[in-house]
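User: I'm writing a tutorial on reading structure tokens. Could you give me a worked example: one chain, its sequence, then its tokens, then a sentence or two explaining what the tokens reveal?
Assistant: Sure. Here is the example chain.
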Amino acid sequence: IQRFPKYLVIHLKRFSETRWSKLSNIVEFPTSDSELNMGSYGANSNSNVHYSLYAISNHMGSTAGGHYVALCKHPVSRKWHEFNDNIVSEALSENHLVSSSAYILFYERT
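And here are its predicted structure tokens:
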């Protein structure tokens, strides 16, 4: 990678090849500030390119029907909030963000 983007979106494969079943494996991913270092993937592998997780799109349910819920970190308070239809609530602590429902991860370069 010659130039890293300001925002990095990672899509986790959650649906099997048959597209009729959902994969529910837990995929570990960095959740703390500046914890994801992509520097080794760049043209200059000695550089440090850090990203911080700021949102997660979770999918619950199956391929036949499901529900999406967003978890987002407030830019000032740094607290995580859950957006579930018309309800916004303070989400679980950072160590509870990794789950088998995680579908899309949103990172910002720090």
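What the tokens reveal: The first strand starts at residue 7 and ends at 11. Strands lie at 7-11, 36-37, 50-61, 66-73, 80-84, 87-90, 102-109.
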